Amino acid sequence: MRVIVADDAVLFREGMARILAEEGFDVMAQARNSAELVGLVCRYAPDVVITDLRMPPGFADEGIEAAAEIRSFAPQVGLMLLSQYVEVHHALRLMEEFDGAVGYLLKDRVSDLGAFAVDVRRVAGGEVVMDAEFVSRLVGRRREHDPLAELTDREREVLSLMAQGLTNAALSEELVLSPKTIEGYVRSVFTKLGLEQSERGHRRVQAVLRFLRWQ
């Protein structure tokens, strides 16, 4: 799997490249800033890009802006964004504006090489991967008028894990429940949230977005 790494910190960037190589990835190139990253994607056509969220010159949201530009001309490229801190508004933007094949992880997650490699491959395969810390922070927040109040504790747990990017198969393994039971919970979540199936709608993404906004 072909990868491009982008980060302004040379030590982190080089370390990331070495880790990925050890996990079987083909690191095509490295970028120091968002403009360089976009140019390298045009040149090498990677399977996935791993980029810091904050990069020169402004150290704001250059990584996301570069990801949006890449998605506009290379929609097949997976986009994994890394951040030093959990920033809810950035994570929500990724969920809302990017149609799959995107991830948002804390840099600390890189220390678990096996899990990180799995997450990168999931993003390259079209899945959405969100850091568990991001989800847990939202779960800890409450609002007086909760549109998710009709969900049972188990349904809320299923939706919380869906927000981390788990598929039905992964939910079945995580919760030690049969695939049929998981399908029932997922359908119930969709029904209670009023999400009807349509050709254009992605109920799973819509359910997760509603969960993230109102937790």
From TrEMBL:
Ranges of residues in domain Response regulatory: 2-122
Alphabetized Pfam families for the sequence: GerE, Response_reg
Matching SMART domains: HTH_LUXR, REC
GO molecular function: DNA binding
PROSITE patterns assigned to the protein according to its UniProt record, in alphabetical order: HTH_LUXR_2, RESPONSE_REGULATORY
InterPro entries in the record: CheY-like_superfamily (IPR011006), NreC/VraR/RcsB-like_REC (IPR058245), Sig_transdc_resp-reg_C-effctor (IPR016032), Sig_transdc_resp-reg_receiver (IPR001789), Tscrpt_reg_LuxR_C (IPR000792), WalR-like (IPR039420)
UniProt keyword annotation of Metal-binding present: no
Protein name: Response regulator transcription factor
Organism: Streptomyces cupreus
